[in-house]
Amino acid sequence: MTDTATIEIDNKKYEFPIVKGTENEVAIDISKLRASTGGVITLDSGYKNTGSCESAITFLDGEKGVLRYRGYSIEELAEKADFLEVAYLLIFGELPTKEQNDKFHDDIKAESAVDEDIKKILDAFPKAAHPMGVISSLTSALTAFNPSSVNVDSEEDMYKSVVRILGKMPVLVAWTMRKKQGQPLDYGDNSLGYVENLLKMMFSRPNSCYVQNPVLVDALDKLLILHADHEQNCSTSTVRITGSSHAGLFASLSAGISALWGPLHGGANQAVLEMLEAIQEDGGDTKKYMAKAKDKSDPFRLMGFGHRVYKNFDPRAKIIKKAADQVLHDLGVEDPILEIAKGLEKEALEDQYFVDRKLYPNVDFYSGIIYRAMGIPIEMFTVMFAIGRLPGWIAQWREMRLRKEPIGRPRQLYIGETSRDFIPINKR
Ligand code: ACO
Q1: Distance from the CA of 139 to the center of ligand 1, in angstroms?
Q2: Element (H, E) at 8
Q3: Could you tell me the strand order of the sheet in which 12-20 lies?
Q4: How far is the CA of 140 from the centre of ligand 1 (A)?
Q5: Contact in structure between 58 and 68 (CB atoms under 8 Å)
Q6: CB 71, CB 22: distance < 8 Å
Q7: Residue 206 in 3-state DSSP?
Q8: Is the dihedral of CA 165, 169, 170, 172 positive or negative?
Q9: pLDDT in tens, the chain (428 residues)
C-alpha cells in the first residue's frame, strides 16, 4: 500500500499520509485537510468512517468477531481473570502483579465509603426516577465531595479519582436500587471481593444473613469483564470528548453514563427485556414481531440484535450465552420470557432480512436474561452495564489526558438560511 492518499478538488491534488495501526488497520490522516484545502472538511454522520483518536487500549475486528483488551483476548480474560485485574489492565496497560493487584484492591476498598450527605441527594429523588439518571447525577456530585478530582494534570490526584470512583460506584448503584425498593442502605463489607460486596450491598436484607451464590458471583464477574471496554463507542467517545475540555473524571463519567442510557446503546439490555415482556403480553407471537422489525414503515427494531461494528457475531454474546445457560440451569429458572427469547433468536438467525444485514444477537440480548434471573430489576440493567464499563471509560479518559489530546470540536456543513434581514414582529 502507498504511504499517501490523494484527494483531488477542482483539478488540484492534495496528499495525505496513510497511517497504520499495530493490527494493520489503515487510516488516512486528514488532520491538515482543512488548512491545506482552504476550508474543505469531511462529512461522516454517525462517524462510521472516522477515527477520533489513536488508542492502545482495546482492539476489535467486527468482521472476525475479535475483541482484545491490551492484546489479551476477551475469551481468555473472561475465563482466567477477575474484574479488578481487568480494570487494572485496561487503566494501566499491563496485568497487575500480585502486589500491584493487592494494593489496587486495598486502595479501592479504602475509598469505598461515600459521604453521608450523598444520602440527602439520593433522598431528594422521586422513587420513580430512572436509576441511570440518579447514578449520573450522583457521579457528578462526587466532584463536590472530592474537589481534588478536578486537578486533571496531577497523576496523584488522577489515581485517587480512579480508585475513588471504583470504590464508590458499587455503593451508589446498590443504594440507588435499595432506595427504589424501600430497603435500608447497606454499607457493604470490605472483607469481601469486589463483586461479592456489590451483590451483598444490592441483595442483603436487614433481617437475614446474605449468602453468596458462587454461580452468580462468577456470572456477574464475567458480565462486568465483557462490558469493561469497547473502544470508541457512543458513551466512551462522550467521556473522552467531555474530558478533552479538561473536565474532571467524575464529570466526564457522568456524561458517559448519560450517553450509555439510550436504548440504542447501553439501554438496549433494558429494552430487550421490555420487548420480550411486551411480546409475551401480546400472546407470545414472535413471528408477528419479526415481521414488524422488517417492516420499514414500522419504527420497531428487534432489540438486542445488530451492532455497529460486529457484523458476523458478537464475541461477548457467545461467552455470555454460555454463562446465561449455566445461571438459569443452576437457579432452576423456568421463565416463559426465555422461550420467547430463544424463539426470536432462532427465527432471526434463519431469516433472510437479518442474515443479509448481518444482524446477530449482541451482548445485551443475553445480559438482560441473566440480570432478570439474578433478581435485578429491569431498570437497573443499564446501571449494571455502567459498572462494567467504568474501567474502560477511566482508561480511555486517562489515555486521552496522558496523550494531551486537543479539545474535541467537530466541524459541520451548514445547510441553514443564508444571511437575511431581520423583520420586526408586527411585519411577520
Ligand atoms: N432490527 C431490525 N432491523 C435492524 C436492526 C434491528 N435490531 N438493526 C439494524 N437493522 C436494519 C436497519 O433498519 C438497516 O436496514 P436497511 O439497510 O434496510 O435500511 C440495517 O439493518 C442497518 O442498520 P443501521 O441502523 O444502519 O446499523 P447501525 O450500525 O447504524 O446500527 C444498532 C447498529 C444501533 C446497534 C442497530 O443494529 C440497532 O438499533 N439495534 C437494536 C438496539 C440494540 O440492540 N443496541 C445495542 C447495541 S450493543 C451495545 O450498545 C452494547
Answers
A1: 30
A2: strand 4-9
A3: 4-9, 12-20, 26-28
A4: 31
A5: yes
A6: no
A7: coil
A8: positive
A9: 889 999 999 999 999 999 999 999 999 999 999 999 999 999 999 999 999 999 999 999 988 999 999 999 999 999 999 999 999 999 999 999 999 999 999 999 999 999 999 999 999 999 999 999 999 999 999 999 988 888 888 889 999 999 999 999 999 999 999 999 999 999 999 999 999 999 999 999 999 999 999 999 999 999 999 999 999 999 999 999 999 999 999 999 999 999 999 988 888 888 899 999 999 999 999 999 999 999 999 999 999 999 888 888 889 988 988 888 888 888 888 778 888 988 899 999 999 999 999 998 888 888 888 898 899 999 999 999 999 999 999 999 999 999 999 999 999 999 999 999 999 999 99
Q: 292: Cβ below 6 Å to ligand 1?
A: no
Strands 12-20 and 72-73 turn out to be: unpaired
Verify whether ligand 1 is closer than 6 Å to residue 293 (CB atom). yes
Assess whether the C-beta atom of 368 lies below 6 angstroms from ligand 1: no
Reported for 22-29, long-range contacts at CB under 8 A and 24+ positions apart, including other chains, are 23/59, 23/61, 26/1, 27/51
With H, G, I as helix, E, B as strand and everything else as coil, classify residue 304: coil
> If we measure between CA atoms, which residue out of 362, 315, 74, 331 comes closest to residue 216?
331
pTM of the entire predicted model:
0.91
| Among 304, 234, 293, CA closest to 271 | 304
CA of 296 to the centre of ligand 1 (A): 12
Q: What CA–CA distance (Å, rounded) separates 326 from 333?
A: 10
**DSSP per-residue string spanning 30-57:** -TTHHHHHTS-----GGGTT------SS
Q: Residue 9 — left, alpha, or beta (φ > 0 → left; ψ -120 to 50 → alpha)?
A: beta
